[in-house]
Specification:
Blueprint lengths: L12 E8 L1 H16 L14 H31 L9 E4 L13 E8 L13 E6 L4 H14 L2 E4 L9 E10 L2 E14 L7 H7 L7 E7 L13 E15 L5 H6 L7 H34 L7 H22 L14 H21 L5 H12 L5 H10 L1 H21 L3 E6 L2 H10 L9
Parallel strand pairs: 4-10
Antiparallel strand pairs: 1-3, 2-3, 5-9, 6-7, 6-9, 8-9
Helix pairs in contact: 1-2, 3-6, 6-8, 6-11, 6-12, 7-8, 9-10, 9-11
Length: 450
Amino acid sequence: MSDSNKKESSELKKYFDIEVLPSDTQPIVESKIRKIAKTMKAPGFRPGKVPIDIVKQTHELEVQSDAINEVINKKYLEAIEKQNFQPAGPPNIQPLVDDKNPDKKSDKLVFRAEIELFPEISLPNLSELIVKKAVSEVTEKDIERTIETLQKQKIVYSESEKGASMQDKVSIDFLGKLDGKPFKGGQAQDVSYVLGSGQMVPEFDKLILGMKKGEQKLDTITFPEDYPAKELSGKAVEFDIKVKSVEEGRLPEIDEKFAKEFGIEDGSIDKLEKEVEKNLKREVESRCLSKTNNSALEALLQASEFDIPEVMVKMESNRLAERTKATMKQQGMFAEQTNLPPEIFLERARRRVKLGLLVNKVVELNQLNPNEDQVSMVVKEMSGVYEDPEAFKKWFLQDPKRRAQAEAIALERNVALWIMDSAVIETEKIDAAELLSDAAKGTEVGSRDE
């Protein structure tokens, strides 16, 4: 490794050169050629009896490339260990060319390795942080609203000859064209969904309003500027839509039969309301806790300043792009429209990386890793909505990925409590409907949600 060309363009970036000599690669090449020769087949020769010169002619370039990569990897690891570097992500290693003599021949190859290190993090003065503690109460109106939602879950649809209205179920065929040309994911047949359900963008729903069974129309919508698929955001798209059916929904009566369908064995409406109230209080309490914890983490985030490794931001933005693609496929309309550039997630990724680094620093300094009881408490809270909570807990903890989710939540709770122990606490009263609306929208919680 040569130190002569070291340079630094930021506090976190480090550069160093890696030299690969023939004496480094030759033993590896010879070993690999001998191994290939033992099993190589060629016309006119028995397996393993192919002359070594023929083996080299066939495989030497491939083996030479593999050997160079092995040497680079070995010398890279030796370099970061020697200099006690802690890379925040994989290195960027590129061959170096002498700009003054680009055609100059040399026995040695030189590569430049660029890495980013983890930043030094200094925690702020916690006594200067302000944390909003969320509190909320469940009212009769909240209970009524929830029972109305339960009604909608049991809605019965029947064919209608009237024009489609919001909350009606429609079955449609559609073909979309961008700049006069069909685009990937812009065509589907027999798509059945409820108008206003959020499955399609609101602008698309409005095209169908008033259309009757058998009707067809050609019209244009402009996609929202924040639409996830960049190719469509803010663009005017022409749709040819055919309505194959319209079904009007009918809400069930809130009676004994209705109560039994939601687990009230004797059909008592009073018991149903009490069960709804109990579930609402549990959910509101959970949302208040999450919102308070988020406020504590956000206060820590805003008060902390340090450089963030761009390599970590890029990795996180790629992960967010892939997760969004999967969500879009599940939602339906543009299942094939998956060209989401990671760049649109950079701001969100940067925030998540910064918060993750902060949380890790706090945990490291204060030994805040969750114990088994704290992880079990998180899973117990999750299990409250299931008929057999114990079976759910057992199932949840069996899978390492699911368990990791519970551990991450418990860890961030510990960090939030640590912050709140020294911070200024201000009570914030929030309407229960607002809390539950945030939950329905999937408001992001913490730094490690999956």
